[in-house]
Amino acid sequence: MRKRGVPMNRKAALLLSSIGISNLGDWIYFIPLNFMVYHMTGSAAAVAALYVIRPLAALLTSFWAGSIVDRFSQRNLMIGLDLARASLVLIMLLSPPVPVLYFLVFIICMADAIYDPAASAFMVKLIPQEQRKVFNSYKSLAWSGAFILGPALAGLLYISGLPYLAFTVNAGSFLISALMLLMLPNLLGNTDGKNLSLAVLKEDWQIVLRFMRKAKYVMVIYLLFNGVMVMAAALDSQEAVFSLNVLQLSESTYGLLVSISGAGLLAGSIVNRLAVNRLSASLLIGVGGVMIASGYLIYSVSLSFAGAAAGFFILAFFMAFANTGVWTFYQDHVPVDIMGRVGSALGMVISIVQMAMVTAIGFAGDLLPIRPVIISGAGAMVFLALLLFAAAMKPSAEYKQAMGRLDQEVIK
């Protein structure tokens, strides 16, 4: 008889709602922010700079954020970050000069870079292991809903002549998120009594490196998966150029293509939620990664809207499965006492690689015909995804034994 998943309790529902509402607000305000910068500068490059700020902020935050996350109450930290982000977004309503606007966005992105590992560590403490996969499937569904509803609401506000209301809505979403977190228990972090200093940061990085050496299999899976996602982000940066110039799609047809991607993401999230109890995290990661890469490959070789739409739907559909798998895998195999530090360190590596790949694909797209560049990138994705599938489906016995000892050994 199939083992049924454990239903989520009230605490899990509150945490999920808090994270989901916060994510929805992020999607709502970012589109008007693009328009604001463009109207203030008239420069496409000034708008493009907004997309560089996030990985740069994550990179500069990763050195120390994990040390804070692991030593303090993650719930209180998340509440403080929600309130800080709400205040910073409201300041944008004053239409400050562009340099000040960039600075505000940079600080918000730094807060995001701290919030994410704090939320991961708090979730592991709050949600029992047998419920995590189900929780993550709901989280993926909430994320896909925010991805679809956020830009749609922002577009309605813009069309209605109320674009600045999006900033108020976003600030309100952070406040609601903070109130929901207040209703959850205050689970203390690993309070070792050490104040943040260069010596403590050095010690923390030694702990992270020791974990990475002991958990090579975990690192292989996580980094291969994020290698696939980094290539996806690099290809996404040329998506509009490829669709408009190579496939000869109109702007409205390209908008329909993006909508099809959103529909695929939502459909995949729903199916994932219904099927997640029958699927292992390894299967979700392996098959999800291969299908995402296959969707990009179909898109890259397509000659028409129909082929591109099929590729977009496939890659978006399986994104929910892959995300649920990798979130569950990470939460189950990284000790919660060092989860913030490990997540920040890995985030730094991923940010560096992502900025390098986005830049490389961008330059290659300017110097070479864009289709061979996109096909080559999609081919690299497929290669990484096949390696990921092989690794995810064949964990070694030595790995399983080693994982049982990690919690006791890694922080000694």
List low-pLDDT spans: 1-7, 402-412
**SS summary, helix count:** 17
CATH architecture label of the largest domain: Up-down Bundle
Structural class: mainly alpha
How would you describe the shape? Answer: globular
Q: How many beta-strand segments?
A: 0
What portion of residues is helical?
Answer: over 70%
Helix and strand pattern: HHHHHHHHHHHHHHHHH
Q: What is the residue-averaged pLDDT?
A: 81
Distance between the termini: 42 Å
Q: What is the rounded Rg?
A: 21 Å
CATH class descriptor of the largest domain = Mainly Alpha
CATH topology name of the largest domain: Growth Hormone, Chain: A
Can you say what the CATH homologous superfamily of the largest domain is?
A: MFS general substrate transporter like domains
Largest sheet data: none
Beta-strand percent range? under 5%
Count of discrete domains: 2
Q: What does this entry look like structurally?
A:
The chain has 412 residues and is mainly alpha-helical. The protein folds into 2 domains: 8-188, Up-down Bundle (Growth Hormone, Chain: A), CATH 1.20.1250; 197-412, MFS general substrate transporter like domains (Growth Hormone, Chain: A). The chain is 82% helix and 0% strand. It is built from 17 helices and no strands. The longest helix has 32 residues, at 10-41. 45% of the residues are buried. Mean pLDDT is 81; it is low at 1-7 and 402-412. It is a multi-pass membrane protein. Residues 1-395 form the Major facilitator superfamily (MFS) profile domain. One of its GO terms (molecular function) is transmembrane transporter activity. InterPro entries: MFS, MFS_dom, MFS_trans_sf. This is MFS transporter.
